[in-house]
TrEMBL record:
SUPFAM superfamilies: FMN-binding split barrel (SSF50475). Pfam families: FMN_bind_2. Signal peptide: none annotated. It comes from Thiothrix lacustris. This is FMN-binding negative transcriptional regulator. PANTHER family: PROTEASE SYNTHASE AND SPORULATION PROTEIN PAI 2.
Length: 198
């Protein structure tokens, strides 16, 4: 990801918070020179090493890419919004403000039933929460044969928070106010991020 210095986020705690908050990401692999992507929920594990875990349907051939080439990319995207040059005091061009994190790492494919069961249970608990009627996985282990697990050991994190930091303070405030007035939740989300950083 191209990250001009204005937009680089280096705070690892913030980057990990971002991944956890936007954990439905994109898993990217390459097979015979052709890129492939799946959109899936991930679980971030912060033990001795940082890892991302997840699973794919066994019918999805991407798991075979993981087995053949263990270098992978996982991408996570947050709030984003169009920025009009009419919001600037000076000249400018249309652009897009956004937040994104790229994770590079080495993956291992997992077929172990106990691991798959634990991963699905952790994933379900994470998204179901502690609500009184939270769904608890209860199905035959045979069903787990329809999925393939994976765990990515994180080797590199890249984070880009493009929030008009390369513009004057006046322009940043104008962009923020315009986005705050929007009916779009995404655009208001960008405005909130800008407010935190101004």
């Amino acid at each position: 990801m191209h990250i001009p210095k204005y937009f680089a986020e280096h705070d690892q705690a913030e980057i990990l918070r971002f991944i956890a908050a936007h954990a439905f990401g994109t898993l990217v692999t390459v097979d015979a020179g052709v890129p492939c992507a799946s959109h899936i929920p991930f679980l971030l594990e912060q033990g001795e090493t940082l890892t991302l875990s997840g699973h794919l349907a066994k019918a999805n051939p991407q798991w075979q890419h993981l087995a053949a080439n263990p270098q992978v990319l996982a991408m996570f995207q947050g709030a984003h919004a169009y920025v009009s040059p009419t919001w600037y005091e000076g000249t400018g061009v249309p652009t897009w403000n956004y937040t994104a994190v790229h994770v590079y790492g080495t993956v291992r494919v997992i077929h172990d039933t106990a691991w798959l069961k634990a991963q699905v249970e952790r994933l379900s608990h994470y998204y179901e929460g502690d609500t009184p009627n939270a769904w608890i996985p209860a199905y035959p282990d045979k069903m787990l044969e329809a999925i393939v697990g994976f765990e990515i050991t994180i080797e590199s994190l890249q984070a880009k928070y493009k929030l008009s930091q390369n513009r004057s303070a006046a322009d940043q405030h104008n962009v923020m106010r315009a986005l705050e007035a929007s009916s779009s939740e995404n655009e208001r989300g960008v405005a909130a991020l800008m407010a935190q950083r101004l």
